[in-house]
Amino acid sequence: MRVETAVSNVVGRLLPGVITTTRHARMYSLHTLVWAAAHERDLDRAQAQELARRCEVVMAGIHHFHEPHRVALSSAHGEGALDRFIAEHRLDVAAAAELNGLSAAGFADVYQGPCVAIGALTAEPYPRAGVRANLSSIQAGLGDLLDLAEASSLTVSDLRAAGRLCLCEAADAEDGRWLRRVLVEDAGDRPDDRYRQLTCLLLLEALHDAPSPDATRAFRDRWAV
After folding, report:
1. Exposed, middle or buried by CB within 10 Å (0-12, 13-18, 19+), for 196?
2. Which helix (H) or strand (E) holds 199?
3. d(CA 211, CA 225)
4. In Å, what is the CA distance from 75 to each residue of 86, 95, 217?
5. By C-alpha distance, which of 84, 79, 77 is closest to 65?
6. Would you place residue 194 in the very low, low, confident or very high pLDDT band (cuts 50, 70, 90)?
7. Which residue in 3, 5, 105 sits closest to 45, CA to CA?
8. The CA-based dihedral angle spanning residues 187, 193, 195, 197, taken in that order and rounded to the nearest 10 degrees
9. Which residues contact 36 (CB under 8 A, 6 or more apart)?
10. How many other CB atoms sit within 10 Å of the CB of residue 173?
């Protein structure tokens, strides 16, 4: 049955800015931060994409060595290939950030569309911070990631010490609070935001009625009748 397009269209209407690949909310903050920093540093697009890959590598390393996590999450983008770039308790950031290193070409292109949909980035070939990007909040929560990404390599101790930057820590961070406002709180007069807000409220109601670590199943059991 050829239903993928139909299902994607429904998801796009009910959860604009969310796709199956965007499985970690804090990555929205990461990519908004990267493109803003790239413009500030006057990088060309290829350099900006390299900066994004370096930040993704560091984020994967932090998530890999951060214990215990505030909440359980699936692996970070590229985390499964991380061991190839770790030797003598040190992560080779430069090598892992190369094309076909930790990932084929990084995830900047994957996140650009969703970030545009929520107003965090502009819809340009070389995007910049969008009208809803609160850069001061994003930098307060995640700005140290840029400094770590400048290093050619980082020790495991460095990565463990940066636990507050982990994907799992978004809820209590400044960038996480900004993202929560954009995704589910401040609908304003944007229909897309209102649709996403209502869908999230349905999910929260399902979990309130039947608390479960399997949110998908709880939602399906509550509403797919």
Report:
1. buried
2. helix 191-209
3. 19
4. 17, 20, 20
5. 79
6. confident
7. 105
8. -60
9. 128, 129, 133, 135, 138
10. 20
Percent of the chain's residues with pLDDT above 90? 64
Q: Look up residue 111 and give its two tokens.
A: 């996140």
* Amino acid occupying residue 71: V
Rg, Å, the chain Cα set: 18
Instruction: Write 112-116 long-range contacts (CB < 8 A, 24+).
Output: 112/31, 113/19, 114/17, 114/18, 114/19, 114/22, 114/28, 115/17, 115/28, 115/31, 115/32
Start-to-end Cα distance in the chain = 21
Closest to 91 (Cα-Cα) out of 100, 101, 99: 101
Measuring CA to CA, how many Å separate 70 from each of 76, 116, 131?
A: 15, 28, 30
Contact 64, 154 (CB under 8 A): no
Q: Is the per-residue pLDDT at 199 higher than 90?
A: no
Q: Is 160 helix (H, G, I), strand (E, B) or coil?
A: helix
Its pTM stands at 0.85
Q: Which residues pair with 90 in a beta bridge?
A: 87, 155
* Residue 98 in tokens: 């190369």
Joined tokens for residue 19: 């796709």
Q: What is the pLDDT of residues 46-73, one digit of tens each?
A: 999 999 999 999 999 999 999 888 888 8
